[in-house]
Structure formats: structure tokens, C-alpha cells
Amino acid sequence: MMLVIDNYDSFTYNLVQYLGEMNVPMEVHRNDQITLDEISAKNPERILISPGPCSPKEAGLSNDIIMAYAGKIPLLGVCLGHQCIGYSFGAEIVVNHRLMHGKTSPIIHDGKDLFAGIPSPFNA
Questions:
Q1: Rounded alpha-carbon distances, angstroms, from residue 55 to 2, 22, 112
Q2: Per residue in 56-98, pLDDT tens?
Q3: Which of 1, 75, 88, 111, by CA, is between 20 and 30 Å from 66?
Q4: Which uninterrupted H or E stretch holds 77?
Q5: Which domain holds residue 25?
Q6: What share of the chain has pLDDT > 90, as a percent?
Q7: CA-CA distances (angstroms) from residue 58 to 6, 15, 16, 27, 52?
Q8: What pairing do the DSSP bridges indicate for beta strands 106-107 and 122-123?
Q9: With contact defined as beta carbons under 8 Å apart, do 30 and 54 qualify?
Q10: Is the per-residue pLDDT at 101 higher than 80?
Q11: Strand bridging mode 46-49 / 75-77
């Protein structure tokens, strides 16, 4: 089961819709409406940390979840979730004054692990 942590962003349900179309078993919980103990009892196979309107400092339980599960199960952060992963491991999160929403860049990779079966390069 994939646990989706909703950081109060409407885009979370776009992700949930896409995952549902791929028949991914999942549960969605808001970042302040579940505890680490409750997550542990659910025994998720992977966790997705969603986008949100705030900074990692205001992302509820998201950072604690990352630290509790990093290296144990796959974690994916999207937008704020991605920032939370960096923040949890000491990255400095700064404001970019040049918006990059929707910008694509060529991704070059070695075809291993996460990128197995994906052409290199590809635009993302």
C-alpha cells in the first residue's frame, strides 16, 4: 500500500487520480491527521509526500515521516514534498524569484534503478 501524505494542496488529488488509474493501492491522510504510530501500524510499502502551499517548516508531520522512513521504504516528494526531503537532510530551501512551473529540462541517466526502461535523455 502507498501512503499519500496530503499537505493541503488540491494537486494532491491529481496525483491520487493518476495512481488510481494505475490501480495503486493507497491511503491518503492529511499531514496533521495521522501519527507516526498510526503510519507504522499501516505498514506502508512506499510513501508519497504531496505538494502544499507552505514551506517545509510548516509541513506538519511530513519531515518526521521522512526521517522515520528514509532508507527503509521508497519515499517520493512532489514539490513541497521534494523540498521536505531536502530540508530533512540539511538542504537550505530558498525562494526562486524566477518561476519555473512547467519548465522541462532534458534528463540524462544511466538506465538503472528508478530509470530502468526509460529512454535517456527524456524531457521532464
A1: 23, 30, 32
A2: 999 999 999 999 999 999 999 999 999 999 999 999 999 888 8
A3: 111
A4: strand 75-77
A5: 2-123
A6: 91
A7: 13, 21, 22, 22, 10
A8: antiparallel
A9: no
A10: no
A11: parallel
